[in-house]
Amino acid sequence: MDSKEFRKRGTEMVEYICQYLETLEDRRVTPSVEPGYLRSLIPGEAPMNAEPWEKIMEDVETKIMPGVTHWQHPRFHAYFPSGNSFPSILGDMLGDAIGCIGFSWAASPACTELETIVLDWLGKAIGLPDDFLALKEGSKGGGVIQTSASECILVTMLAARAQAIKTLKLRHPFVEEGHLLSKLMAYCSKEAHSCVEKAAMISFVKLRILEPDSNCSLRGETLMKAMEEDELQGLIPFFVSTTLGTTGSCSFDALDEIGRSLQKFPNVWLHVDAAYAGNAFICPELKPLLKVIQFAFKMALKIFSNDVMKIFQGIEYADSFNTNPNKWLLTSFDCSTLWVRDRIRLTSALVVDPLYLKHGYSDAAIDYRHWGVPLSRRFRSLKLWFVLRNYGISGLQEYIRHHIRLAKKFEKLVLKDKRFEVCNDVKLGLVCFRLRGSDKLNEKLLSIINASGKLHMVPASVNERYTIRFCAVAQNATDEDIEYAWDAITDFAAELLEKEQDDDFVEITEDPRKKHTLAQKRSFFVRMVSDPKIYNPAINKAGTPRLSMEVTSPTGDGTTVTVQSPPHESTWISWPLAFLFNSTDDSKNDVTLRFRHLDVKMGSSRRNSATGGGSSPSPENNNKIMAKNYEEFRKHGKQMVDYICDYVKTMEERPVAPTIDPGYLVPLLADEMPKKSESYNDVMDDFEKKIMPGVLHWNHPNFFAYFGAGNAYPSVLGDMLSSGIAAIGFSWASCPALTELEAIMLDWYAKALDLPEFFLSKGSNSESVGGGAIQASASDAIFSCMCAARARAIKKLKGDNYDTHDSVYLPQLVCYASTEAHSSVEKAAKMNLVKLRVIEPDSHDSMRGDALERAIERDIARGLTPFFVVATLGTTSQVAFDNLVEIGHVCKKYPSLWFHVDGAYGGNAFIVPEMRKLKAGMEFVDSFEVNPNKLLMTAFDCTCMWVKNILDFTAAFAVDPLYLQHQHETSVVDLRHFGTPLSRRFRSLKLYFMFRMYGLEGLQSHVRRVISMGKHFEKLVKADDRFEVRNDVFLGLVCFRLLNSDAVNQEFLARMNASAKIHLTPAKVKGKYVIRFVANQENCNEAQIESAWKTIQTFATELLAELAPPKRIRASRPTLRKLDRTHSQRFSFTRNVSQEIYERQPSIQKLMDGATPIVVIDTDYILQSLQKATQRNKEAAQEHESTEIKSKTPRNPMANGSA
């Protein structure tokens, strides 16, 4: 698709989105489809040839849309709002079109700096203390945009864990981290979101779940009592997660009480999860909820003024805070914002810093790759920037107040009807209500309502009673929508009560065949917690009384599960039970289990699934929310399409890379977000003049760095549609089409790559137990697979030893990867707290089976347990391919090994039949991942991951509260079980558009073009005797260098990049500094390659002339000394392990050859080490270059070391 066609199709997509949203009321709120509906409507394989746009959009409307849950529908009152607004869609369109990947400041300065500034804007608007703002003088804190609230909570828990282990290590220096881990205890309320429990599972720490008070609020006294009891048992409290706006009832934990109580425990990390409610704090009258002392809110309003700085006694105690603008600030998913008080404490737990990602401004700029699991990240801040500027604080406040007013209206309607009761304190947009009667009666009522398709709501358990959640969700919802909803509810209630009177035993279901008992629904993945006695022998010996009574519940396979129904003051400890999630015929797993009693029950309707949470008070007013202006979006959407086309068309006229310093954007933008709405033209004018100068243009014809980033027009269109629909797909029930299209697209792609059939989903291969998911990045995929392998390995090691703490086995585990493997493998090992042994590759930088087997045998002899092997197809530095056949045969000898293949770049090449010889051995593999956003032009984030056995994989992530369950969960696998996040975007749409608009032949043609461009450049390099090629050119990447010293080549690269005429990155290949050249652009041709080569030759000629002995060169130009920081170091990314800065502590077994037990280094030590290492590297480079130049050019005046 060229710019001319995109201009037409983009305009049509804008019109489609407008029509979709304008006519939303004409559609059912929820689809009436069964699992597998889409499989019969879509072909089993990707088309070979490109298909017409009209046919694709016809299929979208007639096949995909019937399976979409319409989260923007005015009758949708489930979960919490899914952010969606026209400014957000425009921002996402622009981010996709630019296509930069912002893993570091150097990778795209504007991407990093805008995120920092916008997070400070939002933090100020919410009213966070200055300590959480990055740009406040003296602050150590800052904000970051994560993929989900789940990731926010995970990374803060990992940071707290690292801090706790560091402290324990000082007292017990010779004890392995895994043993120390068994002492750590985290805390949350029973009402906390399930992602806290999942984070504890992944982090391998205990989690004590505490009873809230009658208002569903966790109190300081309850927490203190639990922590003091645990200390007496020898446990160490290290992390507390509080909630402002809980999922079930929008209740608020007593943050002020908890914060003051934790002063007795100064080493405990206090996190505040305000995913929904945090957005409301932009309203001055709602800010007292950041304090949350337990007294009536009206009293709070009288006591507290609107002066923000006087009311933060609660939030002042927090170490971190997160909220989701993609819930309640009109910003499309994914956009979860996290702030921390001390960013070094966060990043020190996540830093894996290979030198090929380092740059001269590492100590002066934020690199967001250190703030989370993924290395790479989208330009997410653009959509938030568009929203904040287009609405302004006043517009967003209006929107929040409007929803609160609607909720208050609904509450009044409920209270007027004596048949109903309100079950929560309605502070924000959520009302929990029920019919006066039994839980069964309310379950039936919700089932009937949802089955009708007129409304959609979900249930919750409030004070042990089944309630129905009604949330104001739609941006344009009106009083009439609330009245319509209430009329429908009361009509269904009247019918139900009449039938109940006729027959007390009538069971109303959507379909008589779908009768599932609660026990049956619990029989597969169930949210569980363990009893303290099971996993802590100390508690068992101490005879701690169990205060709860137990009842048994039969499961679907005939076994009996014990369910705990605890009294008000009881607590539970959650511990990773992945080893228990085996197939239902596993006779070994007979340990008594206890369900966490957040028993939000599901009705018989498929749509009776729930999630979400939030809360806050609501002033009554008649403000009208700024409605969606469709005509304005039509106008500006078309303008954005034109801007994107013009940007792509004229990109060559821009410098490929910016020439700016860190902090360039701060003085150009306002200190705070605007009070009032600003026009689209003003926003775009600022974007072009202020943000664009800081963008590194990854799709520029002279950009040959990294591996490129996809931004093909069909992909942009798919993401546009995803943003317009704004559906969230955590389960099949939350959006059937999202779940099913993802499975089908992965099957299409697996077949196109000729992957083994065991990777296909059950829909394509009835005998398969495999399948996959689209992850945010390759880092996420590798981390998730390692988590799954760890869970499986510990289950096998543990056997029947149920009294042994899981973490005791962690020090035994060791994984393996080549020295050429991506740094994300080391990061995954660090987060999983396992050893990583790096294997030296052969002369072609390929990992071989014999080297792996020798390392495994040595480790087994030392008493270690090998559990995970990562092979790479297309390494970062030179696109080397590990030998899968040899490695696979080795892994087969050790059945406990999980064999993962990272094909992030190289794996895409298998779409071309002649490249498939490089994937020989794939039949041995347990999991595989590939990035279409690298070689197949698809916009980031789109990492396709397949696993051989889904149950082995999801066991590590299955934290399944009943409010997320649905009746079809035994026949479909919900995507929330495939990694850290609960929620996910409709990512498969862009793959769907890519496959259909290019066809396999079009994608194959692109891959072949990339390969031929690489070969053409290789030929040009070899024809010039001043250069050499250092790698085997398989797949478009050429590693070349001047036949000179490393120092000269480093200077050579620095000069080229500093010119902004071309952009390249370096690597180390066979011990030599090389320059990487790869051409992934869609329309790259030989003329562009030859032009780039001429530019390279020109710089080479100039540099070599300066080094030539006959001439004495005294330049009228700036001296080379000026390149020391701004140029040479800035572009000096070399692949190596930064052991000089981030030291690794040897384990007891003295694994010095690559094993990396984790040690957390002191904040000051890191900063000092960075400074010292930078200075040492600088001095060494100058001395080395001086020696080199003196030896070759004794008469050259530049030989005094100034180079």
TrEMBL record:
Positions with biased composition (Polar residues): 605-623
Cofactors demanded by this protein: pyridoxal 5'-phosphate
One Gene Ontology term of the molecular function aspect: pyridoxal phosphate binding
Region (Disordered): 603-623, 1176-1203
Sequence positions bearing N6-(pyridoxal phosphate)lysine: 934
Sequence ranges of Basic and acidic residues compositional bias: 1176-1191
PROSITE patterns documented for this protein: DDC_GAD_HDC_YDC (PS00392)
GO biological process: amino acid metabolic process; carboxylic acid metabolic process
Matches recorded under Gene3D superfamilies: Aspartate Aminotransferase, domain 1, dopa decarboxylase, N-terminal domain, Type I PLP-dependent aspartate aminotransferase-like (Major domain)
One GO cellular component term noted in the UniProt record for this chain: cytoplasm
Keyword terms: Decarboxylase, Lyase, Pyridoxal phosphate
Listed InterPro entries: Aromatic_deC (IPR010977), PyrdxlP-dep_de-COase (IPR002129), PyrdxlP-dep_Trfase (IPR015424), PyrdxlP-dep_Trfase_major (IPR015421), PyrdxlP-dep_Trfase_small (IPR015422), Pyridoxal-P_BS (IPR021115)
Family of this protein: Belongs to the group II decarboxylase family.
Protein name: CLUMA_CG016514, isoform A
Source organism per UniProt: Clunio marinus
